[in-house]
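Two proteins were folded this term; both appear here.
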Amino acid sequence: IPTYMIEGIVASVLSDMRSAVIAENSMEYEAYVKQLEDYFNSRERELNDEILKIKAEKAEKDEKDEKDEKDEKDEKDEAAGKSVKDEMVDEGEKDGKE
């Protein structure tokens, strides 16, 4: 076999191996990129869910605090109104006795 034929066969085998390695690396890279994308998308969903949960808890706490403040104010107003009413009743009884 002449030398140029051997060189041609070796060159074609090496180019086929090179093409196979390049294709394999390309496929590995694409799989890696897809895996990273899936990971970051799932992580983003988890964080968004966590943010929504925290916002809901905060809104619930704020509503509860507002309700508690309103209840305290109503109790104070009721107590103030009751004491004024008691004073008026006491004054009325005094006026009736005099």
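Next, the second protein.
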Amino acid sequence: PGCNTENGFCEKPGKCRCKPGWQGENCDRCVAFPGCVHGSCEKAWQCVCEEGWVGSLCDQDTRLCSSGPCSANATCVETGEGGYLCVCPHGYTGDYCHLKKGLCAENRSPCQNGGTCTAVDGSPAFSSCVCPSGFSGDYCEVNMDTCQPNPCLHGGTCSNHGLAFTCQCSGNFTGFTCNETLNLSPCSRSSALHGPGRYIGPAPTLLWIHLI
């Protein structure tokens, strides 16, 4: 093929002189706009952007994930609407997966016995357990109710006093946990005598205080 007369002219036999914006032996290749980065031309001085690039010089990347906005080990997914989202690996959270999950968010709450897991100072990396009444410990694992389970035997009634409890024994029982049988012999000092060898009155109710 000879010199493209639309884009140049024949200067002499076998020699084409191209018009501005064209190049090549036969003046059949366009020259892109100066500074065009990720584009090409179909006509002189054009800058037709490649897929994923915009701007007059095709220098603006629409593929936002190519800039690596997510933290290490996270997966960047383009939404197709000029946005993106970061899919976090296990144990991380946040818009960019840059926050390490705390105990509250990792798997399930570590708090026991109905405790509430809360972030400390608003940071999910640190957490603590707010315990319900009757429980304490880092994870609410310590039962402060000394009457659960009931330490009082033989139907005794337990009263909780923080680190102590009291047993109110019933029937013929006594002792710290109502574990001893009460001596109701008329010969005992606590018996009430009415005539020789007789005991009158119900079995006494005794209260024992036990500190733990």
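Confidence is low (pLDDT under 50) at residues 190-206. The domain at 145-212 is CATH 2.10.25.10 (Laminin). These notes refer to the second protein only.
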